[in-house]
Design a protein that fits this description.
Blueprint lengths: L13 H7 L9 E5 L3 H13 L3 E5 L2 H11 L3 E5 L7 H12 L6 E6 L4 H9 L4 E4 L4 H15 L11 E3 L2 E4 L4 E4 L2 E3 L3 H11 L6 E2 H7 L10 H14 L9 E6 L2 E6 L6
Parallel strand pairs: 1-2, 1-3, 3-4, 4-5
Antiparallel strand pairs: 6-7, 7-8, 8-9, 10-12, 11-12
Helix pairs in contact: 2-6, 3-4, 7-9
Length: 265
C-alpha cells in the first residue's frame, strides 16, 4: 500500500484551480507522468492537464521507456523508486536513445529528501526535482519553468530594411540602393551607414562610433571615422553644406555624425 508520506500535498483551493484555466484546444506540450502510486498519477495528471498539457502515464520503468520512445514527450515527471528498474535507469536509457540529439527534460519525484539522493538524480541528467509530499500546483510551475529553460532558442527575426527617402538599406542582404540604383560600399562603410540610419536624428561622437561600429573600446586616432563619413557622402551624392542623409555637428571640439532628420519622412 502506498505510504501517506509519498502522496502529493492537499489539492489547491477552488479559486486557485480556477485561475489555472482549462485545457486549451492546442496542448502546450506533452508530459509523461511515471509513478507506481495511482493516487499520485491521478492527482498530478489532473493538475498538469488543467495547465494545458497533454498527459500520458506509466507505472514502472520499462513502460516509461516504451511510452517515452513511442510518444516523444517534452518532459517526464519521473519517480525515482519504480518497479522493473528505477528512474535513474529510465533516464540513462532515454538519454542513450537520444543519441546526443535533443534531450527529454526530466523532473524527478523522490520520497527521500537527503541531498545525496538529489545530487545523484541531477548528475544523471535530471533538470529539477520535487520531494514528496509536494504541492501539485508547485509541480506544474516547475514543469513550466523547466520547459522554458530547455526550449530551443527561437530564430532571430530577419531585420527589416531601413528607408530614408530615396535611400534604402537592407541589413539582411547588406545592400544599399539610392533611388533604385544599388551603391557599392565596403563592409565598414555599410556598418557605419546602417548604424546611423537605425538611429535617425541621434548624434554620435567619433569616439562612440569607434566603439560601436569599429568595436574598438580603446583608441587613439578617430580620424578614420571622418574618412569613412566623407566616402559615404561621396557615394550618396550628399552635399555637406545641405546634407540629405549624413549631417556633421560641430561643438566643443568634437565632431559628430547623424542621419539627417529631414530624411526620416
Amino acid at each position: 500500500m502506498p505510504s501517506p508520506s509519498a502522496s502529493p500535498a492537499p489539492e489547491a483551493s477552488a479559486s486557485t484551480v480556477a485561475r489555472m484555466g482549462g485545457v486549451s484546444d492546442s496542448p502546450r506540450g506533452t508530459v509523461l507522468v511515471v509513478d507506481d502510486e495511482p493516487t499520485i498519477v491521478e492527482v498530478v495528471s489532473r493538475y498538469i492537464e488543467r495547465a494545458g498539457f497533454e498527459v500520458r502515464s506509466a507505472g514502472d520503468g520499462p513502460e516509461a521507456v516504451r511510452l517515452a520512445q513511442l510518444h516523444k514527450p517534452d518532459l517526464l515527471v519521473l519517480d525515482v523508486m519504480l518497479p522493473g528498474f528505477d528512474g535513474i535507469e529510465v533516464m540513462r536509457r532515454l538519454h542513450e536513445d537520444d543519441g546526443g540529439g535533443e534531450r527529454t527534460a526530466v523532473i524527478l519525484l523522490t520520497a527521500r529528501g537527503e541531498e545525496s539522493d538529489r545530487l545523484v538524480g541531477l548528475r544523471h541528467g535530471a533538470d529539477d526535482y520535487v520531494v514528496k509530499p509536494f504541492s501539485p500546483a508547485e509541480l506544474v510551475a516547475r514543469i513550466e519553468a523547466v520547459l522554458r529553460r530547455t526550449a530551443p532558442p527561437q530564430a532571430a527575426a530577419e531585420p527589416e530594411p531601413i528607408e530614408h527617402g530615396p535611400l534604402r538599406i537592407d541589413p539582411a542582404s547588406r545592400t544599399v540602393a539610392l533611388s533604385g540604383e544599388e551603391i557599392s560600399l565596403t563592409q565598414r562603410e555599410f556598418d557605419l551607414l546602417a548604424h546611423l540610419a537605425a538611429h535617425p536624428g541621434r548624434v554620435f561622437t567619433r569616439d562612440q562610433l569607434m566603439e560601436t561600429v569599429w568595436d574598438y573600446p580603446f583608441f587613439t586616432d578617430t580620424s578614420t571615422v571622418t574618412v569613412h563619413v566623407r566616402r559615404l557622402r561621396a557615394k550618396l551624392g550628399d552635399d555637406p553644406s545641405e546634407p540629405r542623409f549624413i549631417e556633421t555637428v560641430w561643438g566643443r571640439r568634437l565632431q559628430a555624425a547623424t542621419v539627417s532628420r529631414e530624411e526620416r519622412r
